[in-house]
Amino acid sequence: MACRLIFLLLILLPSIWASANKEDVGVLGRVRESKSREMFNAFGSLSSFPDSPMPLLGASNGPQSLEESAMDVESAAEDPQGYSGRKDGERGDHSGESVSGDLEAAQKALDRLGNLAGEMRASGRRSERGSGSPSLHSNESEEQFERRLALERDLQSEAAARHEREVYRNEHELQRFEKATEREEKADSRKQEEVKEAQRQALKSHVRHVKEDEEGHEEFLEREMREDAKAEREDVLQQEVKERRERKEAAEEQEQQRKEEMEAARRMEKKFHSQRKEARKEEGKEKQEEEAVSALVPAVGRKRLPSGEEEGVGPEEEKQISKVESVDRKEARAREKLQEEEREHHQQEDEREEKLRHMQGKVKEEEEEKEEEDKQQSAQFVRRAEARAEEEVSKERRKVKEEEKADLEEHLERSREEAAQRKKERAAVHLMEKKRQEKIQKHEKSEEEKVKSSRSDWEAAEREKQALLRKTFLDQAVRARRKMMELEGDAMKRREERRETEREQEVQHEKKLLSSRMERRKEEARKTLERRRASKSLAHEASNPLPPAPPVQGSAREERDGAVLERLRRVDDRDRTKERQRRLREEEEAHAQHSKIKKFEQEAVHRALARDRKWKASM
């Protein structure tokens, strides 16, 4: 970031320097122009100028000599408004000062000349209200009229330049606003794509949880781990491509901005050179006028003798000529100094351009090195991500295998315990049956001994006994079978009801997803339409010289998208929790049903044995 700021400052330095030099040169040119015009007025017509706060030279304190008039010219050129308030003894000698020595004083003089020009324009408007073109006032000379017209032309050119700068600034602001809106639209589109991707991921997770119930656990986990590793690699590659694209767009935008700034600097430099050429032309014209005036000046104080010959030059005329020559020498020294400053300025501009080219080459090399480093880092990141994904996949596989092994061992242990329990129960039943048979045999022997005398009584008793036993066991078996069928029917009914409720919940969830998606799309379409209308209105208002409105921020949309993603995540977590609880309930119900059936069978056996003991005791 710091390198970019330094680069922008280096790009903007030539334009800032050119504008500053342009203002300085313009101020010096205006001061020099006003000075030369004052000198021309001093040697020309010396009439008064009532509309101006600065009286003309030679209009106060009676007639003056040419030397005093020249000194007054210098004082008036350096301080036009303060000249009228000075006394004769307070007029300093500025012959040793340079024209471009004090820019601050020149700026003050320029402000006073601007005030003078404003008053002149006001008086001109008052006098020219009836006619559309400027005219000569009754109380001003031709030189004053020309000076007023020149000042008005200067003010008009300055107003035109200000208008041109304002138009250029407005165009630049409009371009910046358009680029900002374009970047905002790109950011909005990226956010919409991220939201859509999140919705797709949520839907995929929902489908994945549904498929998890239908497919085998081991195959599903392996395929899921492979897909996750592949998706992670694709995400890393997409992120790298996106970062490269963003860096490329930023570099292109920076290059375009640099080109625009260089073009603006070139335009300003061309304009500066054209203005400098015009100033040189005006200086040439002024020099020719001054030469013409200086050629006319020696003939002012000469007289012709009666013989037709001219009288020699007097001391006053020599002073006047020496003063004019000193003024010319000052002007020559000022021009030489200005040319030297221009040469130094050009040399500094060349050095700055060379420095800028060198810095641009260095920045380009640094960007290339940074791009290479980014490529290497992205490749290393991809390799590390792939290694991490493979390691996580292997860990997940080991974890799944360990869990499956533990489940298998637990199942085998439970099956062994159940087999041992069944073996014990069978042994107990076999022992009880054996004891019962032994008791029956003993009873039969005793009965045989008792009923030897009566065979018919014994046979009747035996038939009654067998019938009673059959009836007892048949009734118990029928009741147990009926109870088991009732329990199985209840379980089937509950399963069907649960499936129906799950189907209804899935349908309602899909309806909610569709409705939320439609509402989101409607809201996005409405906001896009509002944004387009706002951009159109801003583009229409950008033609007026008003500052553009700040860009619209998208924090509300980010919060809303985050809330939608959080809600979808909570819905998925709730669905997974409900599914897990449903499985646990089914397992508990199946275990309870199995234990109920087992308990019922044991109670039936105990009741049968108790009845048998009771019957034998009654016998």
TrEMBL record:
<feature type="compositionally biased region" description="Basic and acidic residues">
    <location>
        <begin position="556"/>
        <end position="603"/>
    </location>
</feature>
<feature type="region of interest" description="Disordered">
    <location>
        <begin position="486"/>
        <end position="603"/>
    </location>
</feature>
<feature type="compositionally biased region" description="Basic and acidic residues">
    <location>
        <begin position="486"/>
        <end position="532"/>
    </location>
</feature>
<feature type="compositionally biased region" description="Basic and acidic residues">
    <location>
        <begin position="383"/>
        <end position="463"/>
    </location>
</feature>
<feature type="compositionally biased region" description="Basic and acidic residues">
    <location>
        <begin position="316"/>
        <end position="365"/>
    </location>
</feature>
<feature type="compositionally biased region" description="Basic and acidic residues">
    <location>
        <begin position="144"/>
        <end position="199"/>
    </location>
</feature>
<feature type="signal peptide">
    <location>
        <begin position="1"/>
        <end position="18"/>
    </location>
</feature>
<feature type="region of interest" description="Disordered">
    <location>
        <begin position="51"/>
        <end position="463"/>
    </location>
</feature>
<keyword id="KW-0732">Signal</keyword>
<feature type="compositionally biased region" description="Basic and acidic residues">
    <location>
        <begin position="210"/>
        <end position="290"/>
    </location>
</feature>
<feature type="compositionally biased region" description="Basic and acidic residues">
    <location>
        <begin position="85"/>
        <end position="96"/>
    </location>
</feature>
<protein>
    <recommendedName>
        <fullName>Trichohyalin</fullName>
    </recommendedName>
</protein>
